[in-house]
Amino acid sequence: MTAAFTLSDVNKVYGSREVLNVRHLEVHHNYCYTILGPNGSGKTTLLRIMGLLLVNDGGKINVLGEKITWEKSQLLRLRRQMAMVTQSSYMFLGSVYYNLAYGLKVRGNSGTCINQKVDEVLEIVGMSEFKQADAHSLSGGERQKIAIARALTVKPRVLFLDEPTTNIDNKSIIEIEKHIKEINTTFKTTIIMVTHNLFQARRLSDKLIMMWDGKIIEEGGPALFEEARDARTRAFLSGQLVPTMI
Amino acid sequence: MDVIWQGVKEGFFLILSLDQELVSITVLSLQVSLTALFIAAFLGIPVGAALALKKIPGKKMILNIIYTFMGLPPVLAGLLVYLFLSSRGPLGEYQLLFTPTAMIIAQFLLALPIVAGLSARAVMTQRQEVYDTAVTLGATRRQAVWAIIRESRLGIIAAITTALGRVMAEVGAVMMVGGNIKGKTRVMTTSIVLETRMGNDSTAIAIGIILLSISFLITFFIIALEKRSFKDDSSIHIV
Ligand SMILES: Nc1ncnc2c1ncn2[C@@H]1O[C@H](COP(=O)(O)OP(=O)(O)OP(=O)(O)O)[C@@H](O)[C@H]1O
Ligand SMILES: [Mg+2]
């Protein structure tokens, strides 16, 4: 089976600053990937390019077997097989229900079918009683949970999660991780997650991608936690201050 | 003070007696202003959204022109329409001067920059996240643009109410191109001017009361349409 994503020499430049430069990256189906790295190292930028939200400046991208041309119908076809929980977990004006129904509505689903799916995902994040609540009155953690639930409604083949549990309490984190694992194993959803939570990375990841200053400096399995080659990765993964002069 | 009180009393009496002329003036006012506003919204909202979201050459200049025209004095709008519609003007052959149609055109010109300019601003305040959220949930480009406009709806409603306030209240433009002809182009604001000048204070006050109530009712109605998201309060809590 070919890789879900292949990136070659993909870069992104803002002004004169190259914020992303990925020489080569393959993301394979059914795995759970975690992207790690300090603030501003390009994690969100990488995720948005892979999620076809941001056009790269140079390089080649292959997504789900297609060479990306950024042509309109291709974008829609591919985006509809993916879902993303963005770093800000934006909520549309209106109720929680409206937000959860959105992905189903734009796909032309009917009312009863939508209602059933909404109940299902609310159950997953344990927020059934919030169905009619105003989405803008949710707390930070509640909003993130609804954002995750919203991404789950569309049964994506690939799920991007950009720091999905930053504001969520430990008990809920465990609950949500359980469901991330579950959709990863039962629906064979490929997960690509950014997190600053090293415990979470350890618990969930099959693969780790370490980013530094726009570049992928190291990749590997969970064993990376014990035997990283790069000194920066080693320091970062052990939660120590990272030597900046390397 | 007595004069005013007397006027208010007589004014209410005129309203309650459903004075024939008063009714027709009110109806014509509403017809003219709401038609102008409807057309302005129909064109202005898409134009505003397009200016905010699309890459259009000279966009900044177009926006600056629109912002300038938001403050267009009504008499100037009236003058412009007058020059176009007068018998020597380019559209003179249609004989529209001193008809309700001419008044609609003039008020449309006043409302359009307000609706377009304020809608553009409302859409511009939306952030990238709105679009990203919509498309990552599977929206087509068109659906995602619609989501952005939907998120801007409070600002767009404010644009419409502002424009409505402007056209309902203006007198200069309708006076110039309508001519304040009794039973034909006389509207509330022009008749207030006329009745006051003729010393019929009570009639002027009566019309004033109606004008105020209608503005209030329409605003109330528009806000009620969006009751769920239109709070009477900012969500900012200041202690
Ligand atoms: N639109 C933009 N214009 C200019 N610079 C940008 C833009 N978007 C991102 N950047 C810059 O690119 C760099 C990478 O940003 P990115 O959001 O990918 O970082 P990140 O790794 O996700 O960081 P964090 O952990 O804080 O979320 C940052 O230095 C940021 O300032
Ligand atoms: Mg980020």
Strand and helix map with partners:
The complex is a heterodimer of chains A (246) and B (239).
Chain A: E1 5-14, E2 17-27, E3 32-36, H1 43-50, E4 58-63, E5 66-67, H2 72-79, E6 82-85, H3 96-105, H4 111-124, H5 140-152, E7 158-162, H6 170-186, E8 190-194, H7 198-204, E9 207-212, E10 215-220, H8 224-227, H9 231-237
Parallel strand pairs in A: 3-8, 3-9, 6-7, 7-8
Antiparallel strand pairs in A: 1-2, 1-4, 4-5, 9-10
Helix pairs in contact in A: 3-4, 3-5, 4-5
Chain B: H1 2-16, H2 20-53, H3 59-69, H4 74-85, H5 100-124, H6 128-136, H7 141-151, H8 153-169, H9 172-178, H10 188-197, H11 201-225
Helix pairs in contact in B: 1-11, 2-5, 2-8, 3-5, 4-5, 4-9, 5-8, 5-9, 6-7, 8-11, 10-11
Bound molecules: adenosine-5'-triphosphate (ATP) and magnesium ion.
Overall pLDDT score of chain B: 91
Radius of gyration of chain A: 18 Å
- Count of separate DSSP helical elements of chain B: 11
> First CA to last CA of chain B: what distance?
42 Å
Class derived from helix and strand content of chain B: mainly alpha
Count of β-strands of chain A? 10
Global structural class of chain A:
alpha/beta
CATH evolutionary superfamily of chain B: MetI-like
Tell me the radius of gyration of chain B.
21 Å
CATH class of chain B: Mainly Alpha
Subunit organisation of the chains: heterodimer
Order of helices and strands of chain B: HHHHHHHHHHH
Tell me the number of structural domains of chain B.
1
- Hetero ligands: adenosine-5'-triphosphate, magnesium ion
By DSSP, the count of extended strands of chain B is 0
Q: The CATH topology of chain B is what?
A: MetI-like fold
Biggest interface, CB < 8 A:
A-B, 27 and 22 residues
Cα shape of chain B: globular
Question: What does this 3D model show about the protein?
Answer:
The complex is a heterodimer of chains A (246) and B (239). By secondary structure, chain A is an alpha/beta fold. Chain A is 36% helix and 24% strand. Chain B is mainly alpha-helical and 239 residues long. Chain B has helices spanning 2-16, 20-53, 59-69, 74-85, 100-124, 128-136, 141-151, 153-169, 172-178, 188-197, 201-225. At the A-B interface, helix 2 and strand 6 of A face helix 6 and helix 7 of B.
